[in-house]
Amino acid sequence: MLVSILIPCYNAEPWIGEAIRSALDQDYANKEVIVVDDGSTDGSLEVIRGFGDRITFQPGPHAGANAARNRLTDLARGEWLQYLDADDYLLPQKLTSQVQMLGDAQGIVDVICSPVICHTINSGADRVLAINHADAALNFINWGMLQTTGLLFRRTAVLEVGGWKNDQPCCQEHELLLRLLVAGGRFITGSIPASVYRVHSEGTVSRRDPLRVIRIRMELTNRLVQYLDTIGNLTSAHRSALFVARMEAARSAYAKGDQQLAAQLYEKACEVRVEWPRGLAALPFSYRCALQILGFKRAEQLASLQRRWRSFGSPSFSQSQ
């Protein structure tokens, strides 16, 4: 079974070589490595060309990451697709571990999801982004479907939902996963992290405009919840996860300075108030008390003060905020 490793590149000179080497070094033998350069203006092209005929390479004008991914999908010959961002890399066993998960279920699986190792460049810290549930919809609501590198897609499934959305500004893999879920896509999850996702301090949409990311995340989540409700599959676990997701989004929006958006998201969280006993348990105890006694705005004002105190090294219950 051929697996295509697909690498879009745009101005990733410091990273692209390691990404390509990690693809070539996969211990899974039946693979191809394809790179599309999306109009890089740094030294990425020279690095890519240095791999010669070990890879398939196609340069082109700058059209955006998703357009590059769609070009890669068109070039791919494999039944399964591994999308690999140019600043990330795979561990040698990544493809083997996921293909083995298929077992006898090859015809009934569309997406394989595995944990990723999140590497923060500034601090050098690593942490595993685990997958906590077998239910793909629940993972999505929890925003636990992970980053592109940890996924393996059946090519026909991607094509059937129209590929990547070219004008999606952020949460691109989540938007694709949403369409796959709504189309009845079949997901399986693993427990072994075998890819590394690098987190940069700046430059990405999520760092430049975090409020936009919050809005888009909740739009995608709401679309999935509406779909689940329509088909009668919205469970109490989904509702609890939705409450937590909306509360986390509201708190993030408040911390980022948009009190109006925060209030709107809090109101949406209250729409699933029936799940508060379970949902509140996911919040810090001190915040939980403040929320129930003082309300959302006052609780957030208190949490903001606590964060300021903590920044000066003052020990307090704010450490749970």
UniProtKB/TrEMBL annotation:
<protein>
    <submittedName>
        <fullName>Glycosyl transferase, family 2</fullName>
    </submittedName>
</protein>
<keyword id="KW-0808">Transferase</keyword>
<dbReference type="InterPro" id="IPR029044">
    <property type="entry name" value="Nucleotide-diphossugar_trans"/>
</dbReference>
<dbReference type="Pfam" id="PF00535">
    <property type="entry name" value="Glycos_transf_2"/>
</dbReference>
<feature type="domain" description="Glycosyltransferase 2-like">
    <location>
        <begin position="4"/>
        <end position="109"/>
    </location>
</feature>
<dbReference type="GO" id="GO:0016758">
    <property type="term" value="F:hexosyltransferase activity"/>
</dbReference>
<dbReference type="InterPro" id="IPR001173">
    <property type="entry name" value="Glyco_trans_2-like"/>
</dbReference>
